[in-house]
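Onboarding guide, step 5: your first structure request.
Type a short instruction followed by the sequence, for example:

Predict the 3D structure of this protein.
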Amino acid sequence: MRTNISVKFHHILPELDKKGKWALFLLLFIILSSFIVPVFLNVTYDEQNLELGAVKPSSKHWFGTDLLGRDLFIRTLYGIKISFWVGLCATAVALLIGVSYGSISGYIGGWVDTWMMYIVDILYTMPFTMFVIILMTFFGRNFYLLFIAIGAVEWLTMARIVRGKVLSIKQQEYIYSAKALGFSNTHILFRHIIPNLLNIVVVYTTLTIPQVILLEAFLSFLGLGVQPPMCSLGVLIREGVEVMEEYPWLIIFPGAIFVLTLLLLNVLGDSFQEISNEKIG
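The system replies with structure tokens like these:
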């Protein structure tokens, strides 16, 4: 019954261009390293050595150490893990809200769709960065609240994209056939429409994760994100900025990794988007 008009993930992945495959490979390498390397080195991210203090990069400490004598290489790897964790979880929250909201709006249509989109348009005008800051300040600097706070402000674009796609899908003949056979709206929505949104979800996810990581870094830079002794890339950059003139390596290495990570995610997202556009077109 169901006709699949979307591009499935296992069809997209092999067709990545060269830059997309390299971006994916390097991302996987960085992520896996952040989990595996600290275990083999047997060094924790918060292990202090006050007598050592801040030392320059060397064969023993590849990225040097910070003011408390903590190995910056290990802290950077841990920061990558935390930043990706925040990025993935917050993006999952945004996808859950955005896909659900956009699907319902597009499928029901009529005045319900009109008013739901009015709400989205109104929310678009709000300064969401300030909203997240107020939310984190009011409820406390909770690590798990950070996922919800960021995800709750990143779903609007996804809702509009999904809504437009659903408006197109529900005009397909197999949707009319499903209705004629007496299937419920819930069945049609979850069995015939939402599964055909996979290509949009994949593309949007790869484009949203860097936005979320960037927002988390901004919040951590302001002291409202990940709290010590935990660290994210944003926390490391904030700490490095404070002493960048005396100890430049404290900002150079985390900053370089942060820029590289965002670049790879955006390249991968662009590659997925190009493939999706070609298939749909």
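Each response can be followed by summary notes, for example: The two ends are 24 Å apart (CA to CA).
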